[in-house]
Amino acid sequence: MRGLMMDNPLLISSIVEHADINFPDREIVSVMSDDLIHRYTYRDCFKRVRKLANALTSIGLSEGDRIATIAWNDYRHLEAYYAIGGAGYVCHTINPRLSAEQMVYIINHAEDSVICVDLTFVPILESLKDQIPAEMKFIIMTDQDHMPDTSLKHVLCYEELLEPCDSNIEWPEFPEETASSLCYTSGTTGNPKGVVYSHRSTVLHSLVGSLPDAMNLSGSDVIMPIVPMFHVNAWGTSYSAPLVGAKLVFPGPKMADGETLTKLINTEKVNYSLGVPTVWLALVEYLNASGNSVDSLKSVVVGGAACPLSLMHAMDKYGIYMHVGWGMTEMRPLGSYNNPMVWMKDGSYEAKHA
């Protein structure tokens, strides 16, 4: 006998619909490449997501086609995440810091049909254009006034592509096991390995990662993912923040700039953030040198590399609790998170350190 409740497949488009209905006025704030601040709401975001999904369909893509992104953490990158997955394509995030050889391998191995690229990274693709398919389409993530002169062929302007498209869509339905996104491992042994995530794994990872004994996320939080969106989907927060209705603050290309991070935290009242140790070192060094504080920031998660105990002590002086996270690309990526359990409060030293 089958149950008759909640039989809808777990799809990325369901996060779009959920956030659009329940958290339309929560903000998304982005630092852009020109240092300007872009600010809009989830309502604005998902209206544009629907337009982008329609736009992608209009350029002749088929379900399951891979669409790559080479972009900073900002609002257009977030829109691409949801439009690509929601429309039935596969969002392939590429790390622009990879070597040219690895980037060429990844693009060709994934058989990408389209690459969405920030202005900053257009020169990288220009240097690779003779080593990737000649029919590749490039969507440059800017408006018509800022379109660059480029040697790339088959170039489209992001804003111009969106403009004529309908903001209404009937999201396609397909099995929840369908591929939604693709991340490649670092390639420390041989060529990078592609890891394919499903819609189901995306939604479940977002739900479980938000639970109290994990990241403990809610609609009252202001989250700043400093870890790149090309680093395993900003450790999942690109999906979990809209799921719970948290305000999102994106640092764009300023992810290692202690001054910019401090201004963002204080202006937007960020209380939770995610990043690698070098990011937090840059923040601490700026705070120490400037005499500023970040009173709203209560906890951060550090991962990607071992965190020095001295850095934890330095953050603690500013009232910031550091959670150490561990995971792998193959785990999507959260594997463990050191949120102290209730039993640890009363456990013996031996039990706590077993």
Number of domains: 2
Whole-angstrom Rg: 20 Å
User: What proportion of the residues is helical, as a percent range?
Assistant: 25-40%
Distance between the termini: 44 Å
Kindly report the average pLDDT value: 94
Secondary-structure content class: alpha/beta
Strand count: 15
H/E series: HEEHEHEHEHEEHEEHEHHEHEHEHEEH
Arrangement of strands in the largest sheet = 2-1-11-10-12-13-14-15
Largest pleated sheet: 8 strands, mixed
CATH homology group of the largest domain: ANL, N-terminal domain
Q: Which CATH top level class of the largest domain fits? A: Alpha Beta
CATH topology of the largest domain: Rossmann fold
Beta-strand percentage range:
15-25%
Helix segment tally: 13
Shape: globular
Low-pLDDT runs: none
What does this structure look like?
- This protein has 354 residues and is α/β, with parallel strands linked by helices.
- The protein has two domains: 19-26 and 38-200, ANL, N-terminal domain (Rossmann fold), CATH 3.40.50; 208-352, Rossmann fold, CATH 3.40.50.
- 35% of the residues lie in helices and 20% in strands.
- The strands form two sheets. The protein has an eight-stranded mixed sheet with strand order 2-1-11-10-12-13-14-15, with helices on both faces. A seven-stranded mixed sheet has the order 7-6-5-3-4-8-9, sandwiched between helices.
- The model has no long low-confidence stretch (mean pLDDT 94).
Q: Key terms for this structure?
A:
354 residues; alpha/beta; Rossmann fold; 2 domains; eight-stranded mixed β-sheet; seven-stranded mixed β-sheet; globular
